[in-house]
Amino acid sequence: MTQVDVLLGLQWGDEGKGKIVDVLSPQYDLIARFQGGPNAGHTLEFDGKKFVLNTIPSGIFNEKTMNLIGNGVVIDPIILKRELDNLRNAGHDPIAKGKLVIARKAHLILPTHQLLDAANEQKMGKDKIGSTLKGIGPTYMDKTGRNGLRVGDTTLPDFKERYNKLVEKHKEILSHYDFEFDLTEKEAAFFEAIEFIKSIPHVDSEHFVNGYLKEGKTVLAEGAQGTLLDVDFGSYPFVTSSNTTTAGACTGLGIAPNKIGRVFGIFKAYCTRVGGGPFPTELDNEIGENLRQVGHEFGATTGRARRCGWIDLPALKYAIMLNGVTDLIMMKADVLDGFDTIYACTHYEHNGETIDYMPYDIITEKPVPVLKAIEGWKTDVTKVSQVEEIPAKLADYISYLQQELEVPVKYLSVGPDRVQTLILN
Ligand code: GDP
Ligand code: IMO
Ligand code: MG
Predict the structure, then answer these.
(1) What angle separates helix 77-89 from helix 184-197, to the nearest 10 degrees?
(2) Range(s) within the chain of domains with CATH label 1.10.300.10
(3) How far apart are CA 240 and CA 118, in angstroms?
(4) Among 210, 217, 279, 311, which residue has the least CB neighbours within 10 Å?
């Protein structure tokens, strides 16, 4: 029996998960998304082409790999249909090839879930979460509130009535907000997309994944968002509404904890965050702007400018502990090519103490990062393809991180393309 490997983000999302899942997918028979929804934007680049996936697993471009959208994912049928239409127009048709299945227990995002998300954010004003406005929070609320509609419900004869019942509830809530809306167009698109969703094979992800394991096949679970956005352990309330950590792969696919194999933790050589909430190492200055421009740090889903800062080791150690990371993957080293000096946050000064963990009151009492200066490598690494060509100072930076984080860095990414990836250990 095989086990499920997991790949997930260790920071606040956008670490480069899509790129690496695509790189690793030839090693796996199945790639399975386990949480989140179209708040995710996973970018892949190869052969001069670029794709952004929101709901579809990033194994979709590998001919041999099956892809599963797991029960823990929340699905916007309109967005999923659009993603598949775009893929088909680009010459990739996973449905025709039988390479995509969807969990019937996955919950559906309704147009009114998006309205509720927007109404809520509008009401919070300057205290808003900065959500992606995709309806993620309200959909997970209906899931845990036991009101939600699932993919499997779409084939029931009374699906429309169930839909109407939930929408009435949502309209009742919306009537308490000062929020204008017109559902007509969205509803038509929703029901068109629902018909389309019915043409994708529906499966029970728990049996599907465990069946793969029993047959000795290899499975990689693809996370969305990042550990610091986890609803339990992230910088609450500035988080998303799912468990983005390894535990989420168990509940989001239907696998037991002892079926988890390797855990790939992915992080940028620096750090970014999009939306509101604490970010101790944020550089709200020219250096941050430089990172944003060189790293093209603009959201793949929303186009919003990402906040940028130095790497945060207490946060990474926390994420490694929560996820049981066995292998690290460092991304976007090339973005630091031009810096004379880079910095790593080793501790925080917090309420008069020096601490090395993320404090509970991170929201109200901003921790001040203690920074260690590290000499830059001042070399273009985007064409480095052999470990021996890695500049000594970049190798030193990686060694330092491995020593601090006590987990080996297995892969190094030096550019957005599939081929700009090195295996280190
Ligand atoms: P994800 O959400 O974790 O899949 O990450 P995103 O796709 O939202 O953001 C990562 C961005 O960085 C995308 O634009 C990628 O094309 C790009 N990218 C990934 N790896 C590298 C890298 O090593 N260097 C550079 N310069 N860009 C990268
Ligand atoms: P990927 O998978 C970065 C952030 C939003 C907001 C908070 C809550 O591409 O890494 P939500 O819409 O989930 O209710 O928003 O979470 N967020 C992400 N930030 N990458 C993502 O996904 C994100 N998905 C949600 O910006 O701060
Ligand atoms: Mg992203």
Answers:
(1) 60
(2) 107-198
(3) 15
(4) 217
Structure confidence by residue, pLDDT tens digits, 250-292: 999 999 999 999 999 999 999 999 999 999 999 999 999 999 9
Task: Respond yes or no: is residue 42 known to be catalytic.
Answer: yes
Separation of alpha carbons 27 and 411, rounded Å: 15
Per CATH, domain 107-198 is 3.40.1190.10? no
Residues with CB under 5 A from ligand 3 (ion): 14, 41, 300
Stated pTM of the model: 0.97
207 is known as an active-site residue: no
Nearest ligand to the C-alpha of residue 7?
A: 1
- Picking from 109, 118, 126, the residue whose alpha carbon sits closest to that of residue 179 is 118
Q: How does pLDDT run across 31-51, given as a tens digit for each residue?
A: 999 999 999 999 999 999 999
> For domain 4-103+210-264, which CATH number applies: 3.40.50.740, 3.10.350.10, 3.40.50.11030, 3.40.440.10?
3.40.440.10
In terms of Cα–Cα distance, which of 17, 80, 82 is closest to 224? Answer: 17
Structure-token match 């979460």, residue found: 129
Structure tokens at 334: 């090339």
Cis check: omega of the bond before 314, within 30 degrees of 0: no
Boundaries of CATH 3.90.170.10 in the chain?
A: 268-423
